[in-house]
Amino acid sequence: MKSCNNRMFFQGLFVMNFALTLGFGIVETFFTVFLRGFGARGLTIGIAISCYAAAKILFGPVMGTLADRLGQKTSILLSLLLLATTSLLYLFITNLTCIIILRMLQGIGFAMYRPAVVALIGDLVGTKQRSTVLGTFDISFYTAIGTAPLFGGIIKDLWGFDGIFPSLSSLCLLALFAFLFAVHSLPQETGELFRKPGRKPVQTTRNPSVRYSSNRVFSGLLIYIFGRSCGIIVFVSFLPVLLISQLHLSGTETGIVLASTTIITAMMLRPMGKLADCVPRKALVVAGGAAVSLLYLFIPSVNSFAEVCLLGIGIGVFSGVAQPASSAMLFEESVQLGTGFALGIFNTTLNLGFVCGSLAGSLLQGFSGISSAFYGAGIIGILAVVLFSILSKSEPVQESVEFARPIPGLHRVGPDFLKRLYSPGSK
Asked: Are 182 and 18 spatial neighbours (Cβ–Cβ below 8 Å)?
């Protein structure tokens, strides 16, 4: 029964993350069109879009620190309430000023949400299971991102924006109920594993030199994710332009390329998470990150739909190789600084990479053509991987850290079809 309750707890969090990501993914797909309906043009659209990312960048460390003080459960609940409330308010807005304020509040909500969720899951599993569980959990994000444009398009065609924002509100409420269900299903004896308010960074037996080495690893991870996020935003933003303008692909073909990359990444997360629990994680991060960056360099050379599909699949595969390992390394290094605070800094770096990558890609496209944007993304990604490899050279042994006791059975979470597909012989 305990193992069943633990799986129900994780699956509740899985549904919560999927519903939240799907709802906002649907809105993001058509948000620019929505703004134009209010008369927004040019700079106004840019402000409305950028204030969301700016809020996540500015409030990331602050909300992460707040999560350390309030506790993970309270932080997740507050963020879900904020996101659900702002989503409902979209149904009543009448001007652009209100939209900009709501976007900022949603950015603040996500700045609190992600560090608390990752910290909660990381605390509740043992070191040897962490990559598997975090990789499995990230499937909820990638499947939602991959399917959001499809669901959003269907909803918009049927009901227009009168259906988009009620869908967002409904999915936010579903996420809230899924979280409450997850907390309710958690066995009483494991409730103490929620991070207590005011908990200090975990104490360890490390000497100062090893602690300094740990900070170098965390710095390397920040550089790595900055390079990866620059590449991701260039790939998502400029690939459709390249495919339509130069290869003359249809919108459907372009959508297939983008969706296949995301779906392949999602499929790789669980098996690569299991692998990352058995082999050195740094090697997977370096191999996956370097391969993705190299593939970016080949994008301008593609000549057909088949070739770009192969490149997209390759990018999806190697993104899945690196993701679970980097997530586990991030959590294990962040406990030294206060988990919420460190994860908040990480998410700030992630969003800063999105902003800088978008600006750099636009500048490169303006000066040297769209191909240069992909060359720039590849070079930045390779440099980030090299710096990560150098900084994490003296990676400390993680078993010296005093982690929370794992919940029995949590490593076997996940949909049954995934378990049969990837681990047919598992117990």
From this structure: no
Lookup result for tokens 């902003």: 355
- Token pair 């890609």 is at which residue? 361
Tokens of 244: 């339509």
How is the chain split into domains, by residue range? 2-184+208-402+410-422
Tokens representing 153?
Answer: 């398009």
pTM of the model: 0.75
Between CA 129 and CA 324 the distance in angstroms is 11
> d(Cα 92, Cα 278) in Å, to the nearest integer?
52
How many other CB atoms sit within 10 Å of the CB of residue 32?
Answer: 12
The domain 2-184+208-402+410-422 is placed in CATH, from the list 3.10.450.590, 3.30.450.30, 1.20.1250.20, 3.40.50.300, at 1.20.1250.20
Instruction: Give the tens place of pLDDT for each residue, 227-272.
Output: 999 999 888 888 888 887 888 877 677 778 888 888 898 899 888 9
Q: What span, in angstroms and rounded, lies between the C-alpha atoms of 57 and 408?
A: 36
Phi/psi region, residue 125 (left: phi>0; alpha: psi -120 to 50; beta: rest), is: beta
